[in-house]
Amino acid sequence: MKRSPALRFIVTLLIFFGSLSLHAQQSRKVSGSITDTAKTAISGATVLLISEKDTLKSITDSEGYFSFSKITVNKFSLEISSVAYQKVSFEHSFTEKERHKRLEPIELKPSNQMLKEVVIKGKPNPVRFMQDTVEFNAEAFQVLEGDNVADLIKQFPGMEVDDQYNVKSMGKQMVKLRVNGEDFFTGDVNEFIRRLPAGIVSKIQVIDDFGDEANFTGIKVGEPRKLLNIVTKPGMDNGTFGNASANAGSNDMIGSGLSGNLWKGGKQTSAQGNIGTQNNGAGTSRNITGGFSHNDKFGKHTRGGFGYNFRNNSNAFSQEQVMESVYPEGTFVNNSRSAGDNGGSRHHLNGNLHFNNKKLFLTTNFNGALNRSNAANSSATNQFGLVRQDLRNSTQSKNSTPNLNASFSAARKPSKSPHRITFSGGVSTSGNNGTQQINTNTLYYNKATGALEKDSVLNRDLLNRSDSRGFNAGFNYSFGFKKPKDSLVNRHLTLGYSGNINLSSSEVSTFVNDNITGRVALVDSLSQSFRSTSLSQSINLDYNYSRKNFRYNFGINARPNMLSNEDLKLKQKFVNNTFNYAPSVSLGKTLAKNKTISASYNGSNNNPSIHQLQPIRNTQNLQNIVVGNPDLKASFNHSMRLSFNYNHAKTGFSVQTGLNANVTQREIVDHVILIPDTLDSYRQITRYENVNGNYGVNANYYANFPFLKNKLFFGLSGNIGRSNRAILFNNQRAFGSGLNFAQRLNGRYNFKKFNVSMNLNYSVTNNNDAGSLLRTAYMQQPMGLGMISAPAFFRSNALQMNINGSMRLKTLSLSAGGNYANTRSGTGVDSTLRDVSNINLNMQAELTVKKSYHIRFDAYKRINYGYALQEANPLVINMALSKGFLKNTLRFNLSGNDLLAQGNNISRVLSGNTIIDSRTKQQTRVFTLGLSYDLSKFGGRVFRVDAD
Questions:
Q1: What local confidence, expressed as pLDDT, does residue 644 receive?
Q2: Order of all β-strands in the sheet with 133-137
Q3: More confident residue, 121 or 673
Q4: Residue 197 carries which DSSP code?
Q5: Is residue 385 predicted with pLDDT exceeding 70?
């Protein structure tokens, strides 16, 4: 039967649309992301989807994402490759009902194979901004032979490296080091950025790290820590580095050292030992250290390690110090000289074990330590102005402090479920047993005539015993919402709890020696025995949302806190409970390529210490008696941060900005009262109270301008902030409020063999406070009145300028520079201005003769003005001669430091209402003879790392 044309057309349409419908039903989609070992997205990676019928290709975008659509097969394989990374492949298959397969992030490891040198003509982008990560491209900066990683970091915009190799990014400290995303030996930033050669570095990343658990679950909550990750060049993820030395010299100097590190990816073994002794001008200084560690992978998903180290040291010292404090009642000057010999020992054992198979995460840590210390110190102090008296003090002390702690964290992420569950826990115990002998001789004078009125002597023996035990546990359950179709969105609602119980006790027995009879008696009023219990809890509910270039978290946090402090002598118990709650917010967004913004808010408790709670008079320093307050509440801190980063890929221009604010409720502050005594002098009583009104707001920025193909850099940075500090003084409350401002201009020009750098800094500080560390260091030695926070802050203007230049030729290297610094300080109470200035000039030269002889010359000239101590303007000259063997890895060294014996280390510190000038006695002229062997081999290549 012949069909009509119309019927044939209709049948053809039905077949066509039927095939489209069948194809649509069978068409499927695959999507995922590619990262490196530091969880940083890899852009430009090639992804091949291979099946029996066809091969599809995709390139990852700037966030590392890829996707394939219209897949009609059930089984397929993925092959991922990228320059400088190892190629990987995986087998996958669809379930019967699965239409969109969303893969877990795929991690690429750096390639172990050396690549042939490629000359890149394009202009490298120096900085790249991503969510939670700032990445610096080493190729965009100058790297010379002999440079270490610290030399490279010093060139990065927004980064700072000090003389002790502490690294900060936009003012925040780097707390951990990783290499290629893996923990690197001890993780000590200071130790390894000075030892690793800059030549092995491809990129350096500054990461806002929320912890290994957050990286596993993908749920980032809380305040991140700053982590430094070094990404090596291809083939440079293995090496052997270390050194051996032996030396002897003048001033009874003798010493030797040995360190070795074997590194091959996740396998890391190290050992070190050092011994040295010398006369430092104040007495004998001795130091003995040693230790070893090993970390390795056990199977496909497990890694772990252990380590042990010890230290035994003693150090004699001699110091002179002038401390000037300004109060509404007048000016107080404390002129002191102190000497002593401090020492101790430490044994530390640690272990760790980590398991991660993409579904289950488990980590455990163990630490045990035993610390022993001993000290013998003496001081002679003359006090003028508000107080006129002299003190002669001597103390001897011994302490033994063992501590032990263990912790674990576990997380589970089922493969076919969006839910997450984590558990954590830990135990800790510590103790202290110590003895202390304090001999105090106080001489009182008549202020008008200067005649001696009284000579008071008090000798005391103290026995200290304390212990502390802590237990903590927590869990989080995250309910994952169903993902929208064809979406990479993740949404979780998390309920969490954590609790910490601390049980502690403290006992101090004070015995007083009768100067007439020689008998020793226990004094109850100066002794104490306490037991304290604290329970800190946190309950939180958070909503977490994340997608390709955006994440945020909103939550509420409740913190009930319970404190119980019991006086065992008086049979009294003090109970102190608080309840705080606050929202928590964090977000991060990539606005465009190389343009990111992030913000967060958090609240946290700070419990008073057991010593702040004890209502007993602490009379270790008779001029500064401390009394605790059992009614203290836990303080609560609100902190907020906001940051914005931008980088222009073509020009290399980058800018980093940040805003930080904090407000503290019920902050625990010192309440200082000056009490006149019967001899027309003063003594100080310090109590603790809760005060509201403390806050601080600070904004900072850094802008970097590269020119001439990154050979010329200009940087402009600064910060401005306002702070308000509550002060309790003589039963009156006041607030020290001030605006602080700083501005810095810096520049650097890199020639092929010559570079020059300069910077100009100006700052205005109206509310200067160096914090509790200075007070703690000062109060360790009874020297009269303490550093009192009085309503009379020093306001200072500081100007600093420096310029440095260096030249490196084949056999000669030269560098020279100059620095000028001036600080003008004064208070509203005292109109006197206190200026201190110094000029520093320096020059260094190193000459290589016949490839193996090295002659080094250093000269430093410093000119000082305005110090309270007797000023000295030293000229320090150093010279050294060395002969190299075995391609200069083995060296024979002869050196002389400070040939003219003029070195000194005078310094000034401003802290609130106090200026401290100090100088420590040192033997700076030293002649040394030594032999050293240095090994720095990475990827089969030997690198030179010059000493700074």
A1: 92
A2: 127-130, 133-137, 201-209, 225-232, 176-179, 182-183
A3: 673
A4: B
A5: yes
- The residue among 180, 413, 191 whose CA lies nearest residue 293 is 191
pLDDT higher than 60, residue 1: no
pTM for this predicted structure: 0.79
Over the range 885-913, which residues count as b (16 or more CB within 10 Å of their CB) and which as e? eeebbebebebbbbeeebbbebebebbbb
Per residue in 584-596, pLDDT tens?
Answer: 898 888 887 778 8
Would you kindly state where each structural domain of the chain is located, as residue ranges?
Answer: 19-107, 127-236, 379-748
What is the Cα–Cα distance from 398 to 879, expressed in whole angstroms? 42
Q: What is the largest CA-CA distance in the chain?
A: 140
Rg (CA), the chain: 33
**In the numeric block, which tokens belong to residue 476?**
């989080």
- β-strand 65-71 against 28-35: which pairing, if any? antiparallel
Q: Was domain 19-107 assigned CATH 2.60.40.10?
A: yes
Provide the pairing of β-strand 712-729 with 159-161: unpaired
Residue 772 has pLDDT above 60, yes or no: no
* Single-letter amino acid, residue 34: I
Query: What is the full DSSP assignment across 868-888?
Result: SSPP---EEEEEEEEEEETTT
Residues pairing with 744 in the sheet: 717, 761
- Percent of the chain past pLDDT 90, that is, above it, reads 28
Residue 424, pLDDT above cutoff 60: yes
- Give yes or no for residue 751 having a pLDDT over 90: no
Q: Which two tokens stand for residue 337?
A: 């000289």
Render pLDDT for 778-815 as a digit per residue (tens, 0 to 9). Answer: 334 444 444 445 566 777 888 999 999 988 888 898 99
User: Torsion over CA of 907, 910, 914 and 916, rounded to 10 degrees?
Assistant: -10
b/e 455-477 (16+ beta carbons within 10 angstroms → b): eeeebbbbebebebebebebebe
Buried b (16+ CB within 10 A) or exposed e, 533-544: ebebbbebebeb
Q: Which CATH number, 2.170.130.10, 1.10.3720.10, 3.10.450.50, 3.40.50.1820, labels domain 127-236?
A: 2.170.130.10
CA–CA–CA angle 436, 437, 439 (5° rounding): 145
Residue 580 CB: number of other CB atoms within 10 A?
A: 21
Task: State the average pLDDT for the chain.
Answer: 84
φ/ψ of residue 18, rounded to 5: -65, -40
